[in-house]
UniProtKB/TrEMBL annotation:
Originating organism: Penaeus vannamei (Whiteleg shrimp)
Protein name: Saccharopine dehydrogenase NADP binding domain-containing protein
A GO BP entry: glycolipid biosynthetic process
TM stretches of this protein: 347-371
InterPro entries listed in its UniProt record: NAD(P)-bd_dom_sf, Saccharopine_DH-like_oxidrdct, Sacchrp_dh_NADP-bd
């Protein structure tokens, strides 16, 4: 993710991205899959094969991955795209996992054409070599496209060759906008794995209208941030017989290994800059959200800075990541476009022990203070391992540690037995019904994110006619509300279940 920038080269590979050889794929997941330790219970997270790509018949016996309904909607100036999927930033730490996941999917779907893109041809060749080793696939003739965020012409050339760009280059506040602009101009749909609210909301504010006019869908936050939270909330709403008033989410990580795997540095870099510029969000949101959502009559019970969740079986701390921002944007979009009743949403981190939770509070306060001051912020960025006690590292985690990790997102909704059809009409009696759902999957940051964003990209490619409007900038819960994305994720080891 963090490695794709600065070098100015232009070029591209030729060929159709066809692969040879067969392999089990996802072997690291297979070693560690199958259970997630909760509080006194085990939750299944088995990984099945990817959902087969649907093919649409054409004249002359040919077939296409793209819906004919979508092709009718394409604007005259839109690029056709040589490759179905282009992984941009394939040489970065997270990009490597995404590149491998796309290769595994393509091995099961030989008509799918894909390419890897990045600023260095040499590093792309190394990515391809690692992908061969980790997937056990031959990966013959995979095209390599040279594209650099500092060279807008190269980005446009990449976008012209793609139907969907999977953008893995962060921090997105520095490098994301140029890719979005290139995709809109080149007619390529775009998904990314950003967890940066300011970037995500700025892209919606600046490019929603232009993207709609060009027939391009820009969908942000398509990794662990924030698809489990966003689709999990939709799943909870759909599981409720009546209306949902509020949703409380607890995100917890279950590590079955003896040690702790560090988080890649770019994630920390994004968080630091996000905290440093958090005051700017108020102005962006004032311009972006010009109309108010219906005011709920019943506020959820306020939580303290530290509490125990019976539903999640965890000590909980406030979650300052992007999930709430993304979920609330989806709720707003679905209210405006689909007339779905919006919910109130709160997010927390779940910690297994009280002592660790208390340490987490102290660490969070120190991190916030250091990120807010220019001098200490530079120290954090320069010496991440030292100042975070090894929690973040420039080297990233080892793969053997990741296979022992699982995530569990617990979402508890409170609402009513009855449903009022008009989403603007409020219930007059307090909510009395409660329901909990879980979203469970593998290591969230790398294997999990690679699976999620790859399935998001396939959904955009294959079900574009089910996405909102003719184009625009959307969070995942709004973009995929009418698609089969949840089923695709369930077929690939990420479970959505109602907790009995």
């Amino acid at each position: 993710m963090e490695g794709e920038r600065r070098q100015k080269e232009k070029g591209g590979g030729k060929g159709g991205g066809r692969r040879g050889g067969k392999g089990r794929g996802m072997q690291e997941w297979e070693k560690g899959k199958g259970r997630v330790e909760g509080e006194g219970s085990k939750r299944s997270a088995e990984c099945d094969s990817p959902l087969p790509l649907r093919k649409f018949p054409r004249r002359g016996g040919e077939s296409s991955l793209i819906s004919p309904d979508f092709e009718k909607r394409k604007l005259p100036g839109m690029a056709g795209g040589t490759y179905d999927l282009v992984v941009f930033g394939a040489t970065g730490y997270t990009g490597q996992f995404v590149a491998e996941e796309v290769a595994r999917i393509a091995d099961k779907n030989p008509d799918l054409k894909f390419a890897y893109a990045g600023r260095s041809k040499e590093k792309l060749e190394k990515t391809l070599m690692m992908a061969r080793a980790n997937t056990k696939l031959e990966l013959a003739d995979v095209p390599l496209i040279t594209a650099d965020v500092s060279d807008e012409e190269s980005l446009l050339s990449m976008a012209n060759q793609a139907k969907v760009v999977i953008n893995c280059v962060g921090p997105y506040r520095f490098y994301g906008e140029k890719v979005v602009k290139a995709c809109i101009e080149g007619g390529a749909d775009h998904v990314d794995i950003s967890g940066e609210p300011q970037y995500l909301e700025t892209m919606q504010l600046k490019y929603a209208k232009e993207a709609e006019e060009k027939g391009v869908h820009i969908v942000g936050a398509c990794g662990f941030d924030s698809v489990p939270a966003d689709l999990g909330t939709l799943f909870l709403q759909d599981s409720f017989e009546g209306d949902v008033n509020s949703v409380e989410m607890v995100v917890s990580l279950h590590d079955e290994s003896s040690g702790n795997a560090p988080i890649n540095f770019t994630t920390m870099e994004c968080a630091i800059h996000g905290l440093a510029h958090s005051s700017e969000l108020k102005t962006i949101r004032k311009d972006l959200f010009s109309t108010q959502l219906p005011k709920p009559c019943f506020k959820p019970e306020p939580r303290g800075k530290l509490f125990f969740s019976e539903e999640a079986g965890r000590w909980c701390l406030p979650n300052m990541a992007s999930d709430r921002s993304v979920v609330m944007r989806s709720q707003r979009c679905n209210f405006e476009l689909e007339k779905r009743r919006p919910v109130q949403f709160s997010a927390f981190f779940g910690i297994s022990s009280l002592s660790t939770a208390i340490f987490g509070i102290v660490f969070g306060v120190l991190f916030y203070v250091m990120a807010s001051i220019s001098f200490t912020r530079s120290l954090l960025l320069k010496y991440p391992e030292f100042f975070t006690f090894g929690l973040f590292s420039r080297k990233g985690p080892k793969r053997e540690d990741l296979v022992n990790m699982k995530f569990c997102v617990t979402l508890t909704g409170k609402g009513w037995e009855k449903k009022i059809e008009d989403p603007e009409q409020q219930h007059t009696d307090p909510p009395t019904v409660s329901k909990t759902v879980t979203v469970v999957g593998p290591d969230p940051g790398y294997f999990g994110t690679a699976t999620i964003v790859s399935q998001c990209a396939l959904t955009v490619l294959q079900e574009k006619d089910k996405l909102p409007k003719s184009g625009g900038v959307f969070p995942p819960g709004a973009a995929f509300v009418k698609t089969t994305l949840r089923s695709r994720l369930e077929d690939n080891g990420i479970s959505f279940k109602v907790k009995e």
